Every structure is written in structure tokens, then in C-alpha cells.
Amino acid sequence: MEAAVVTGPVTKPEPELDADDVVNNGADNEPLADDSEDDTLADEYPENPEPRPSGTDPAVGAGAARGGRRRLQLSNAPLAVPSGQALTSAEASAVLATHPAELVVAVAEVDAGKTTLFASMYEQLARGPLEGWAFDGSLSLLGFESRSFDASRDSGNLCEETNRTSRNTPRIALHLAVRAATGDRRHLLLGDVSGEHAGSLIDFGDPGDFRPLLRAATRALVLIDGARLASPADQNATLSRARVLIRALVEGGDVRAQVPLELVVTKWDQCGDAEGLSGELDRLLAFTQSRWEHAALHRTAARPHGEGVADLFATLLSTRPPRPAKQWAAPAPTRPLHLFAVHDGVASRFLASRARLEK
């Protein structure tokens, strides 16, 4: 019997595959051509890969060089993203630890206009440079926007309003970063806390939870509600409480003596024409300067045009005045020389005895 002659190409039968020889690649299972490719993939993707040193690119390697597949590495390291709201005490401390920043603490009673004043600073920076300083970022953009919204046209309110700051909120500071034309970059932390803390300081001499912020302040603002200065009846009571507040800051010792103190009269458009007010404010400033090293007076109207806000903002970023050098002088004689020596505090009788012993 003659053997059959095969004239076409010879097809090699495919070997049977075991479960270990199949590589799961997405939805399709492709057989490996030979054991060498399986060994290559095993070296490229080990079951328990060694941790990659920090700073290396996972795309760089033998597999990437050959155009092979790469495995994504998941990291369990937490990633902190700013919430955009006002900062907590821990977040504000982190800013102070990493940047040269001014911590501005405003001490004001309820409805004095503290939050409105800070919101007006942000709004004017958003329009353009303010006294040579341009907006350069913020960690609390949502906090500023939420404070400014009720005074905007989009809110639908008939008059400009600002929500009050809650006493129980842990978010106590607003952050601003500004840059000058010279390239100088500065950070501002604006302490925005409830006016009820200032009321406790006036009535009981105890700032409570307000104390850590006062001790860390680099600038202090004492706000006086201008709306209460318009009528003579409320004017005396308001200025009297302002004196008590200043005296409480001086005697409490929570604010350092070298920290500049700015007296800020808010809502000046409502009280600027009040009879005798200018003289009363001058006397209040003299009262403050007699008890504080550096004190100044500012008149502002944050709504509707931000009157005086730009000058106050520039003051917050200005260089603090140097402390005057103390001049030490010898004490003047207070007792006769035959009883006590005065210049060195040693009794003259002792000096006379010493002279006799030396002879």
C-alpha cells in the first residue's frame, strides 16, 4: 500500500494547556507561546513585589523599556486637601510654621462689623491690587465667598448683609496670600471669632477660648461700632465699653505689649457727622496711647464702597515700628550720705568701715 504524499504546508498541532499556563489579561485569556515568556512576565510582575524607593518613577524599568505592560501601585499615604473654609487652630498653626505670616486678631462686640471688614478686604483684592498688593492665593476661598455672598447681587437680598460668626465654630481664621510688585509675598491670617468673646472680656475680664488667639497675635484690632456712635445717648456707653475693653487687654496681659494696636471705627458713613465725635475719638486714642506702646486710629466703612479699608489693609502689612531703646540712668540720691550711699545701694557706714580696715 503506497504512502500518501502531503504537498501542502504542515501544521503543527497545538499542545494542550494546563491552568498554570494561562495568563488572565482582562477579559480574554491568551495562551503563552513558550515557557520563556511566562518566566519574563513572572520576573516583571512578582506576586509580592518589593517596595519601590520613594522618588523613583514606576514607569522606568525593564518592562517599560521593552514596551511591556506596567502595574499601577496604590499608595495608602493620606493626602491632605484644603477644604476652602476658614482655618481651624491646627491649620492656622501649620501656616504660621511654614510661612512668615501676620496673625491679625480683631476684638469686637457683636454686630460691630468685623466679618464685613474682612470680607471687604477680600472683595477689593479680587477686583485688583490693593495699595500695591495683589491677590496671590488663599486657603479659605469658600470661607470668604460665604461671608460675601449675602452682600452680593446674586443673593437676591434688598440690602447688603453679612452672616454672624458662630461662637461654637472651630474655624477661627481666614487666610490670604498677597504679592507686591517687587515680588515680596506675604501671608495674612485674619482671626474671625464671635463677638461674644469680646463681650465676656468686657463684662468678666475673661476671654475664654479667645485667649490662645490673643497670645499669638502679631497685630490687634479693637473695633468700635460706628452705628452706635451716631446718637449721643449710645455714644457715651459705646466709648465707655471701648475703654473697658482696652483696659482689659492691657491688664490681662494676653496681648503682648509690643504688638501694634489699631482702633478701628466701623460704619463711619453712619456716624461721621455726629456732633463732638471727633473730639471723643481723639481722647480715646490718647487714652490708648498712654497705656500701649503703638496705637493708631482708623475710620472705615466697609459697605458699600470700602471707605478706609485700603489704608487699614496697608497698615496690617507694614513693618512694625521698632521698640524704643530704654535708657538706664543712675538713681537720684534719696538719703543723706552719712546714712546711706545711694548710687550703688550700699550703706556708707559699711564703706567707711572698709576704708578703715584697708588702712
Explain what the structure shows.
By secondary structure, the chain is α/β, with parallel strands linked by helices. The chain has 2 domains: 87-317, P-loop containing nucleotide triphosphate hydrolases (Rossmann fold, 3-Layer(aba) Sandwich); 332-359, no CATH class. It has helices at 35-44, 62-65, 89-98, 114-127, 141-149, 196-204, 211-216, 232-252, 268-271, 277-289, 309-317, 348-358; strands at residues 22-25, 28-31, 87-88, 101-107, 133-135, 171-180, 185-191, 219-225, 261-266, 295-299. Strands 3, 4, 5, 6, 7, 8, 9 and 10 form an 8-stranded mixed β-sheet that branches. Strand 6 and strand 7 (185-191) form a beta hairpin. The longest helix is centred in the C-terminal third of the chain and has 21 residues, at 232-252. The protein is globular, with a radius of gyration of 37 Å. The N and C termini lie far apart (153 Å).
What is the number of helical segments per DSSP (H or I, 4+ residues)? 12
Uncertain segments: 1-8, 19-33, 54-65, 337-345
Average pLDDT rating:
77
Q: How does the overall form come out from the CA principal axes? A: globular
Instruction: State the total count of DSSP E strands.
Output: 10
State the CATH superfamily name of the largest domain: P-loop containing nucleotide triphosphate hydrolases
Return the CATH topology of the largest domain: Rossmann fold
